Amino acid sequence: MKNNNIYFHLITLIVVLFTLVQSTNAQSNLAAENLQTLVAKYKSDIRGPYKDIRWFCTDGSVRQPKDPCPDNIGPGVQHARYKDEVVALGKSNHIYFGQILAYTTIDELWDANHNHSRLKQYQLDKYLRLVDDGWINQKGQFYRGSVQVEDEEAWGIAFYKSILSKDAVVTDNFYFIRQSLKDIPHNGDDNVAQLMRSESKVISDLYTPFMDLRTKIHSQPEKLDIQKVIDFKAKNQKSLTTDLNKKLDGLVATMNTFFKPVDVQSLLNKSKLVKGTVLGDKVQSFVDGMANNESPSYSVNETAQLLLEIREELLTEKRSLARLQLLDISLKLEELLFQNAPIWEPTTVSGQLEKICALTTASVGAGYLELWEWEQISGVLSKFNQDQLSLAELTQVLETARAAVEWSAAMVKANYQEVVNTYTTFEPKSYAFIDDRIRGSVALHLGQSVGELGDFISKESALTNKVMDVANQSTFRGLNPGYAFGELVVVDGSSEDIEVSADKIYIFQRSPSDLKPVAGIATVAEGNMVSHVQLLARNLGIPNAALSDANLQSLKKYDGTRVFYAVSNKGNVIIKPEAQMTDQERGIFVKKERNTDKIEVPVEKIQLGNTDVLNMHDVDASDSGALCGPKAANLGQLKKMFPEQVVEGLVIPFGIFRDHMDQQMPGENSSYWEYLNTMFVEAERMRSANVSEPEVENYQLRQLETLRGAIKKMPLKEDFMNQLESKFKSVLGSDFGKIPVFLRSDTNMEDLKEFTGAGLNLTLFNVLDKEKVLEGIKDVWASPYTERSFKWRQVYLLNPENVFPSILVIPSVDVDYSGVLITKGINSGNDKDLTVAFSRGAGGAVDGQSAETYTIYDSNGYRLLAPAREPLYNTLPATGGTGKKVATFQNRVVNDKNMAEIKTLAKTIRETLPKETNSDYEGAYDVELGFKEDKLWLFQIRPFVENKKALSSGYLESITPKINTEKEISLNTKL
């Protein structure tokens, strides 16, 4: 049997290696299951991912381990070589196992062309080794000579000497470089905080009773916890193995090191290049001040200020090694702050506000917030010296501080999420890496302080969340009013492959980009308030809230529970089990007739006889729903109003689609159009026969899948293609296939007064090739028949069979940044304010990116609601297709000049659009726009549709407290 097992493993490895070679030859990626097999293999291999050990000499020669480099060619370094399949894996998948720094060039590790992936993998590898007993080096960690510490440290110093010499690199990557110092050896220091967390995690994984102590150490570590670990060991001695005893002793030793008083003076004495400089003198002054004042409030305030000054003035020091020493001091200061923040326990509102301000300052100094973001919020957070604040002012401080916590966590995710997602597919333990980094940040203590302030304000305002029995409820924040009842589904991980159900309530880390209908949602990474998902939720009255990662973890135990979920008009959140629902709450969900609250797509004015490709100049708002959808009609209207801000365009009207649908459908005894309508007739027959709605829907989706596939292969008529050739030349000024264009689906079901339809159908970016444009037209025609689009409109439409797509064809503009303008203050609640959200590159804000979001006040000024934290953005090359560029966050996206221009645009739209279109519409508008070299371009305008029923619901009114926002609160009030 044993021999059979060996034989089986050999066969498995041969298959894996063969697959790897084939993959490398084809330059394709290894599947996750194959990577899992490789990881398992390396864990049990006494050499891990390494093949052998060699001397690497200065002249490039490689020598045997017992044959060192001779003196006449200079010193060499000794370390392991990677297994051949590890090298191949790097080439095929850009995945690098067991990286040895001395075996890597500086440019290879910095890996600028892959968003620094190799360095991030090096950091993740270090984390995995801590939490998984060496991970792929489980046996290989004892492979003597594979890595030489002194060589790795020398390499680290050379690395930072190179990286820190470039001002632009330091400015663009301050957070990431500073984080890397915790992992790349360069001065003998270790990341003790991470070691403490990983050791406690390993113990709790092996021995469940330790979980409460692990949670405490991870969420609010303090020196008293050392004794708690010692007491735990004594109390559970009979149940502990020798290995657990050893691990607990190791944790106690690590905790003693972590809580040992930080000796900044000693570090300064070692930093010889810093002593005597302007910043060096500030560090010395800080050390002297700390010797004379040991209060935790003084320590936290002064530490935070020095952290900020080191960041602000780092570039005034031009020597790269001096910069390295200053950054090491910065890390040591963060350790000091970690020790003192829990000890500072304010007793008054003023003290709590002061602590929050100090911790936010420290977050900026440590790189979790950008300097320009601090400029935007520092005024609001610096009000702790006033005698009193109104409840409205105090709430604004809370919202701003809560935002700072979210932005800090988002900085970690923006830098590491891509690499973590890749590794999680084959090593699930990778997923906790981001949480570990956040817990090792100032945001840990800042979040705690903000939660305590939130609890105080909740009592003063009676705006209290009631979410099961989870802790720190003040971090829940309603985004969109509504109510729902159904099974709670908590998704702790990627949501992209989750199959959602319309009758369930979902808690996501980040909502999927193509979210299908759900009963309710809440997200940790809310994206932005004007993304297509958010607009659909707002339109349909789906309750939507933001929460913290800790809240999500607390809710995991309720996964699968049937709950009632509501978000009030003021943003307080209720989630409670079915058993606790009131009669009023149960009454909301009494089954209604199928057609209640549904609308009809207007078809009375549709003109299906027009089969000419139109110049966008020749359409305007009056043609919406007649010749084409509202995108083309409204953009044609905008072209008349803002001729310099709107591109030229072509419109493929409803009639061309309808004409093509009258062709014979292959494999059927009917046309495409007859096939579609037969499906709807059969669906109604099934309902009349009391067939269940899920079964009816399943039938329709199967039929639509067949139709969609047929439309994509549909022959295009010669006259239509000839018109395209001619119009590209005469209207767009270029031969067909020589200018990249957007193909935007534009149906008659969009932008109705009661239904937005935002983002439900296909838009194709920057298509250049003639054949791809023709294929794209058919893809866009087919897109209203996708499952997602069909399900969303089934919620609202009585006559989904009368949905007709037109297509707007416009030249691409490779904008620097783009986004959405809503001509009302969503956050402020003031119809005269504006909401804007922008991301870098094309297609900004609409697909749920972490967008830079503002309220622009009607009175004057603006307020930053969120910065952009999207690590990659779209570009539109002249060769067609889309490119990706790496974003950095040190500069804001939208400048003051843009803000002024947006405000002027909104004023013009409000005043002139209803007149120009003879419309009685009085609501807000949703405008898509972008800037190229500071020039504003307009791409779309539509009504901003909200769910009036949810906003005016009697139940939602009943759970919305009446708040006296003018109530004055003394800052001397006890917490």
Q: Please state how the strands of the largest beta sheet are arranged side by side.
A: 5-12-11-7-8-9-10-6
Task: Give the proportion of residues in helices.
Answer: 40-55%
Largest sheet: 8 strands, mixed
Quick check: average pLDDT? 88
> Given this structure, which CATH class of the largest domain is correct?
Alpha Beta
Count of distinct strands: 26
Helices and strands in order, then pairings?
Blueprint: H1 2-26, H2 32-43, E1 50-56, E2 62-63, E3 77-82, H3 84-93, H4 106-110, H5 117-131, H6 149-163, H7 167-172, H8 174-180, H9 192-206, H10 211-219, H11 224-235, H12 242-259, H13 264-270, H14 278-292, H15 296-313, H16 320-340, H17 349-365, H18 371-381, E4 388-390, H19 391-424, H20 432-439, H21 443-461, E5 466-467, E6 477-480, E7 482-491, E8 504-510, E9 520-525, H22 532-540, E10 544-546, H23 549-555, E11 562-567, E12 573-577, H24 583-588, E13 614-615, H25 630-641, E14 650-652, H26 654-661, H27 672-688, H28 693-712, H29 718-730, E15 741-747, E16 763-767, H30 770-782, H31 787-796, E17 805-811, E18 817-822, E19 834-840, E20 852-856, E21 862-866, E22 872-875, E23 883-886, H32 896-917, E24 925-932, E25 935-943, H33 948-952, H34 954-958, E26 968-970
Parallel strand pairs: 5-12, 7-8, 8-9, 9-10
Antiparallel strand pairs: 1-2, 1-3, 4-26, 6-10, 7-11, 11-12, 13-14, 14-17, 15-16, 15-17, 18-19, 18-24, 19-20, 20-21, 22-23, 24-25
Helix pairs in contact: 1-2, 1-3, 9-10, 9-12, 11-12, 14-15, 15-16, 15-17, 17-18, 17-19, 17-21, 19-20, 19-21, 27-28, 28-30
Signal peptide: 1-28
Pathway: Carbohydrate biosynthesis; gluconeogenesis
Family: Belongs to the PEP-utilizing enzyme family.
